[in-house]
Amino acid sequence: MIEEGRIQEPREETRRRLSEALGKKPGPERARNSRESQPSGPDGPGFGEWLREARQTRDLTVRELADKSGLSQVAIYKIEAGQIANPRQSTRLQLSKALGEKVPVEIEAATEKAAEIAGLGSLQDFDPHDDNELPEGAGVYVFYDISRRPVYVGKTGDLRGRIRQHRVKFWFRPPVVETASYVAIPDKELRRQVESILIKFLKDNAILNVKGVTREDSE
User: Is 140 found in the same domain as 111?
Assistant: First the structure.
């Protein structure tokens, strides 16, 4: 949990014991949150790593950045930890404006490249529990649990409205649903086909979907 960023500030005693086990002295606060501990993509540092370093350079807490950007603290933690690896473009823009710094071209390009699905669009990550993060339009979406396992696949003509409908269900809460991804697909028949393929490929892994069937979501 520490390595994945779910525990952001380990206790001093925890840091001491880990340092002794590694044979190293505990470093300062900034060193614990350094580049070495953050996930990087195949083409270099990811957006989450850049975000954390930019925030720390400005001596902003996660709460302060959340207040400035309009995003939730949880969403920012998830981005910095790499759980939301390919944030939506609007989310990246909100954070960039709040920090007063443009996202480096190479980071932006790597994020777009990682999200791209040739011939279809881009797979964007978001926090399904944050209203400001919910996508709009039509598409196919996937919910992931705390271990990043896909647990639910759906299709809809109204992503924002459909995801809000899920919130009344007893299972729609952490750790069962932690993060989500979607791809915008305007064509109704193509949405149906993509959703059906995903459910069949995932088999029992999509534990919240009825096994191997095509469901009629809000269209």
Answer: no
Rounded distance between C-alpha atoms, residue 180 and residue 157, angstroms: 17
* pTM assigned to the model: 0.67
The C-alpha angle 136, 82, 185, rounded to 5 degrees, equals 25
Looking at the fold, whether 54 and 162 belong to one and the same domain comes out as: no
Res 210: pLDDT = 54
The percent of residues above 70 in pLDDT, for the chain, comes to 81
Instruction: Assign residue 193 the CATH number of its domain.
Output: 3.40.1440.10
Q: Pick from 125, 124, 103: which is nearest to 49 by CA? A: 103
Q: Identify the H or E element spanning 107.
A: helix 105-115
Strands 150-156 and 139-144: antiparallel
Q: Measure the CA–CA gap between 187 and 192, rounded to whole angstroms.
A: 9
Q: Domains in the chain: how many in total?
A: 2
CA distance linking residue 30 with residue 15, whole number of Å: 13
Q: Are residues 139 and 56 in the same domain?
A: no
- The H-or-E segment that residue 191 falls in is helix 188-202
CA distance 67 to 59: 14
Per-residue pLDDT of 157-203, as tens digits, reads 999 999 999 999 999 999 999 999 999 999 999 999 999 988 888 87
